[in-house]
UniProtKB/TrEMBL annotation:
Residues 316-530 form a coiled coil. It holds the Pfam family EF-hand_SWAP70_N. One of its GO terms (cellular component) is nucleus. Residues 210-306 form the PH domain. It comes from Salmo trutta. InterPro entries: EF-hand-dom_pair, EF-hand_SWAP70_N, PH-like_dom_sf, PH_domain, PH_SWAP70. Keywords: Cell membrane, Cell projection, Coiled coil, Cytoplasm, DNA-binding, Membrane, Nucleus, Phosphoprotein. This is Switch-associated protein 70. The gene is SWAP70.
Length: 589
């Protein structure tokens, strides 16, 4: 509400000053009655015709000043204002009162309607101080907006020259000076009147009517589902659409809130560049002229929805307030700086008086200073001699330190070389240990192979013994069966010979496995010797490394049940005994 009252006071101030014909700062009560009646009419406030007389009944000194009119204005009009009236009607009423007196139409390239729009923009951008004026920064902001709306390029040098000229005369412009500046085409050279008028209208829509975007698009009807071209106006809380851009006939509004959304649609029904606005009650399908305009409209609507969700005002009003706050801050800093400058100037004058007094004291102390200077020079000479001797001693100490540093550097290099050698030996020792590990794995593999061969040999020997027992039992049976047994014996003898051949083959395989095992054992011993050699080298080099050495290995004993059961000699005796027992039944037959 405070912002609304601030916006209303500016047009009222224009109207009040327009009634001050002799520029005395006062207006007659009859004119104030007319002004008050018009204000109440356009702002839809009940008007009390006798309130003004009652308010000023004790003041019979004639016309009323703005300071005298403000209490009545606040009490009987502004305090009763509700945001339910057309602000443009209010602005036009105040414009009508002040334009007849102040607007100079000579050499203007714009219409009265465009001048009214510039006047409204002035009230929006002007400072909240009276008499109203627009500062240089806001003039540049408005002219930049106008140039962009006309499709031109901003010439910084031209405005800098104008700003320099403006700073020589004054730092701001009144509403009528701003209208003259724009209306005479100072910053719109090369543009025709229509382009200038369209640019003023676009800036007016954006800053005063809060229109973010406007333009022609196709809208799909809800009942007949036909597509009709409409002129759309996007405001912070609504999208209005009209029959044409003159805004004479409004066809409807799309009310926006935080629950609305806008999304793109795929091409359909022969229409491209489609999007829709989804609200809580219904959705609206819209067709833009091209992809660029479609994207611009979607982004603009999304920005409005984001502002509604965050509860923020329109961006240009926020930026205006920020610029005003910044100017106020800079003005406060400038005033503080001026105050400090005055304080510094006063302090400087005091310092000048103090320096004058000190100069006199210095002149009196000049003689004493000369004597002190002589003593100081003498003392300085003595100190220089002493410092020279100290410097020579420091040079000698430094040379000794440099020699020590060089010696330490040499020792460090030797130590680092020994460290590198030790690291190399450690790497070689790790390689040797890895070879030993692989040799042990090979040994284990061969050992498992021998065990498997011995198991197979034991199985075959058991089969041969069973065959031999069957032969012995067959011989002790009757003569009738002897012939059959001889045949079976012949067959079994053949089987026995085949088994003997297999046994010999297994013996050969076992001998081959034994040779492989001996080779692995030899490799293992070589690896162990290599490991012991490197261990001795490392222990000799550092004297710190003590590694566990592998123990010596005796002759390996292997049987069909695994290692460490019989020696090779015992196996040979067993084999010989078995062959003798096998030959005895054959002799008996």
């Amino acid at each position: 509400m405070n912002n609304l009252l601030d916006e209303l006071l500016k047009p009222i101030w224009h109207a009040f000053t327009a009634l001050d014909l002799d520029k005395s700062g006062k207006v007659s009560k009859s004119q104030l009655k007319v002004l008050s009646h018009n204000l109440c009419t356009v702002m839809r406030i009940p008007h009390d015709p006798v309130a003004l007389e009652e308010h000023f009944k004790h003041d019979d000194q004639g016309p009323v000043s703005t300071q005298g009119y403000m209490p009545y204005l606040n009490k009987f009009i502004l305090d009763k204002v509700q945001d339910n009236f057309d602000r443009q009607d209010f602005n036009r009423m105040c414009w009508t009162l002040c334009a007849r007196k102040n607007l100079n139409r000579t050499h203007l390239l714009i219409s009265d309607e465009d001048a009214f729009k510039i006047w409204c923009i002035f009230n929006f951008l002007s400072e909240e101080k009276y008499p109203l004026a627009i500062v240089t920064e806001e003039i540049e902001y408005f002219l930049r907006k106008l140039t962009e709306a006309m499709g031109g390029s901003w010439v910084e040098e031209r405005f800098e020259d104008y700003k320099l000229e403006l700073s020589i005369k004054q730092q701001s412009l009144s509403a009528w000076e701003l209208i003259t500046l724009v209306g005479r085409g100072t910053f719109s050279k090369g543009m025709d009147r229509q382009t200038l008028s369209m640019g003023i209208t676009e800036v007016f829509h954006e800053l005063i009517l809060d229109v973010f975007k406007q333009g022609y698009m196709m809208k799909k009807g809800h009942k007949r589902k036909n597509w009709t071209e409409r002129w759309f106006l996007l405001r912070p809380d609504s999208i209005s659409y009209y029959v044409s851009e003159d805004l004479a006939e409004k066809k409807g509004d799309i009310l926006l809130d935080g629950n609305c959304c806008v999304e793109s649609l795929p091409d359909k029904e022969g229409k491209k560049c489609l999007f829709y606005v989804k609200c809580s009650d219904k959705s609206y399908e819209i067709n833009a002229s091209d992809k660029k305009r479609k994207q611009e409209w979607i982004q603009a609507i999304q920005m409005c929805l984001s502002l509604l969700q965050l509860g923020r005002t329109v961006p240009h009003r926020e930026s205006l307030q920020k610029r005003r706050d910044l100017r106020q801050k800079q003005q406060a800093e400038q005033e503080e700086l001026e105050l400090r400058m005055r304080e510094l100037q006063t302090a400087n004058e005091n310092k000048q008086h103090q320096l004058e007094a000190m100069r006199k004291k210095l002149e009196e102390a000049a003689t004493n200073a000369a004597e002190e200077e002589r003593i100081r020079l003498q003392t300085q000479t003595e100190q220089q001699d002493r410092y020279r001797m100290d410097l020579e001693r420091e040079k000698m100490v430094r040379q000794e330190m440099e020699e020590q540093v060089a010696q330490k550097s040499s020792e460090l290099e030797q130590y680092l070389q020994r460290v590198h050698e030790l690291e190399d030996m450690y790497h070689r020792l790790e390689d040797a240990l890895e070879d030993e590990k692989r040799a042990r794995q090979d040994e284990e593999t061969v050992r498992r192979l021998q065990a498997r061969l011995l198991e197979e040999e034991a199985v075959k020997r058991a089969e041969l013994e069973q065959i031999h027992l069957h032969q012995q039992r067959a011989i002790s049976e009757t003569e009738v069966e002897k012939q059959e047994l001889r045949k079976e014996g012949t067959a079994k003898e053949n089987a026995l010979q085949a088994a003997m051949l297999q046994l010999e083959q297994l013996e050969k395989e076992r001998q081959g496995a034994l040779e492989q095992y001996q080779e692995v054992v030899q490799k293992l011993e070589d690896a162990a010797n290599n490991t012991r050699t490197w261990k001795h080298k490392v222990a000799h080099h550092e004297g710190l490394v003590r590694l566990v050495q592998p123990g010596s290995k005796g002759p390996q004993k292997i049987t069909n049940w695994g290692p460490a059961a019989f020696t090779e000699a015992e196996l040979s005796l067993r084999k010989k005994d078995w062959q003798e027992r096998k030959s005895q039944p054959a002799e008996n037959q």
